[in-house]
Structure formats: structure tokens, C-alpha cells
Amino acid sequence: MRIDLTDTTSSKINKALVQGRRAIGTPAVGMVLTLVIVTDEENAYDSLKAANEASREHPSRTLVVIKRAARSPRDRITSRIDAEVRVGADAGTGETVILRLYGEVINHAQSVVLPLLLPDAPVVVWWPVNAPLDPAKDPLGALAQRRVTDTYAAEQPIQELTARAEAYHPGDTDLSWTRITPWRSMLAAALDQVACNVTSVEVEGEEFNPSVELLAMWLADRLDVPVKRSLSAGPGLTGVRMETSCGPIVLDRADGSLATLSIQGQPDRAVALKRRETAELIAEELRRLDPDDTYASALKFGVDRLGEPSDQTTVPPVTETPEPKKAAPAKKAAAKKAATK
After folding, report:
1. Is residue 160 within 8 Å of residue 58, measured between CB atoms?
2. Does residue 214 contact residue 161 with C-beta atoms inside 8 Å?
3. Cβ–Cβ contacts within 10 Å for residue 287, how many?
4. pLDDT tens-digit profile of 108-144?
5. pLDDT tens digits for 175-203?
6. What CA–CA distance (Å, rounded) separates 130 from 8?
7. How far does Cα 153 stand from its chain's mean position?
8. Whose CA is closest to 33, among 146, 173, 131?
9. How many other C-beta atoms lie within 10 A of the C-beta of residue 122?
10. Dist. CA 229–CA 231, nearest whole Å
């Protein structure tokens, strides 16, 4: 069921939600959280589709905030809210409200969203594109327990990681980090099978892919060894090679779907490591609402430190003790002659 509202208010939108629930015969609210998507018209469809698929696992009220650019100076000072309310089959397993903001109200989107939040339920804000540099200080981000961004969508992804590290607040997360969850699980499981010391690591992936840097920083932070970042044609992450005291451990994925795990002294194994859709990534992020300390530690390690020698591999300089100078032959002969007198 869909209800279109033009030049409306938050109060009328709430009434439309109640009306829609009664019309489809489900007056009770059975949602567990509010997901706020801040996007533009170009990315609204794909973002909403991913959220609806994720709602099968996490029934939620989804609020899509689209800030429309004004075409004339008069429109910039005239505020208007258009809304589309979806309930039932049109909204997955929850409720959906698409908000289009015009004029001055664009700068006060939090005042429109706040009355529409589910009472006593957690709030997650997701920026598929154009995320603020400091999500926690954004007016909409300040309403949320979790703030989801995606550095892969940034114009300069690697520089964006540095900005995210400087502005990090507990509750921030990144879909580029979520993408490497299967890689982290597989590498951790591989190291659990051997009793060896890792001496160095090489992470290979396509250029301008922040997931490659995040995986490299996670390995460098956890293993305290130098990690080299190498380029490949992709897609995405293509391989990790860990040099250990027992031989190399290699996880290679050349086609973006099936990977091969090679451990010294064991037969090679094929493992499923496909690239996941956005809906799967959002569903994973909605499973936890507490701060991700592992992500914070890896992010703050710093891209510029990749490849540096670790503290454990630093060899202190050796101070040589100077040898005593040997006496000249003439002086030795004179000393011997004096001793015999």
C-alpha cells in the first residue's frame, strides 16, 4: 500500500503510517529499529532496495531522506516536504517513508526525522554516498547509535580513510570494512591451524579500493609485522600472502568468487569467498549496535604506516668496543731493552 503526501508535515506522515497499518490489518508495530538513509535521487532506488532486502532479517522503519536542490532563489527559501508512505508488501517486512525535502528545511532534516523515529528503538543512519567527514557531529548522525558510511563511494577513498580515523567516534562503521569480514575470518582460521610466527604479509588488490587498505591495516595492527600493499587488476581484493616460520600461507582469489587457501604441508583448499551485495552488508551491520573496537583499532593504525618494520623486528644498533691500539715496533723494542737492563 502506498500513500502520497504533498507539502506535508511529520504529524501527517505519522497519521498516514497508522492509517496504512490499519488498512492492511496489522495495527501493531513489530519493528526492531529505525534505519535512516540519507542519499540523493540517483542512489535512492538501489539503497532502498538493499534496505528492503535487509529488513527480512531486521524488520525496521526505513526513512529515506532525499535533499532536493532548488532551481531558483525563491525555491531556496520556500520549505516543502513531500512524502511517500509504503506499508505492507511495498515496504518489505517493515515500513518505508520516502522524504523529499525542498528549500530551507534541507538544513533542518533532523527536525523532520525526529518525530518519525520508533520510540524506544535503536537508530541507524546510513549514507550510501556523500557522507559527512564527521558523521557523529552531523545533525542526523547525532540521533543514531550506529553511523554507516562507505569510503568506496568517496572521490578519494584512501584519503577518506585518514579523515575517518581523525573523526572517529564509537558507533561509526564503514561498509568497506564489512566487505572484508569473510577474509578476516578465513585468515584467522588459517593461522589457528598452525603454530608458526608470522614474519611479513603482502595484501594484493585493485587500486583505490579502501577494503584492501583496511585489511592490510588490520593485519599490521594485529600481527605487529610489516605489511606490503600490492596492486592488481581486481576485482576487489585478490590475495593475501603471509610469510611464516613454517612456510607461506596464501589466500588467493583471482575471479572475485572462489578462492584457494594454501598452507605449507597441507593440500590446497577451495573456499567460497564471493563478493557480497549491499543488502548482505547492511544486514550484517544491523546485527550489532555496539561500537566496533576492532574496526576502530585498524582504522587508527594509519595508511601511511603500511610497510613499516614492526617494533619486534627492529634490531638495536650494535655498539662496537674499540680494540686497544697496538704499540709501534720501535716503541716495543725500546720497552723490551729497558726491561732487560
Report:
1. no
2. yes
3. 8
4. 999 999 999 998 899 999 999 999 989 999 999 999 9
5. 999 999 999 999 999 998 888 899 999 99
6. 26
7. 11
8. 146
9. 16
10. 7
CA distance 237 to 186: 13
* pLDDT for residue 77 is more than 90: no
Q: List, edge to edge, every strand of the sheet that includes 258-263.
A: 227-231, 198-205, 237-244, 249-252, 258-263, 269-272
- DSSP collapsed to 3 states, 105-166: HHHHHHHHHHHHCCCCCCEEEECCCCCCCCHHHCCCHHHCCEEEECHHHCCCHHHHHHHHHH
Q: Spell out a b/e string for 62-77, using b for 16 or more CB atoms within 10 Å of the CB, else e.
A: bbbbbbeeeeeeeeee
pLDDT of residue 299: 94
Neighbouring CB atoms inside 10 A of 243's CB total: 17
Alpha-carbon distances of 30 from 86, 93, 107, rounded to whole Å: 15, 9, 31
| Residue 281, helix vs strand vs coil | helix
Spatial separation of the C-alpha atoms in residues 165 and 152, rounded to whole Å: 15
Q: What is the three-class DSSP state of 97?
A: strand
Picking from 74-78, 142-146, 152-156, which range would have the lowest pLDDT averaged per residue?
74-78
- Cell numbers 542519499 correspond to what residue? 39
Whether the CB-CB separation of 208 and 234 falls below 8 Å is answered with no
1 pLDDT band, cuts 50/70/90, is confident
Average pLDDT across the chain, whole number: 85
Say if CB 144 and CB 125 are below 8 A apart: yes
Please choose, from the candidates 99, 110, 108, the residue with its C-alpha nearest in 3D space to the C-alpha of residue 66: 99
pLDDT at 166 over 80: yes
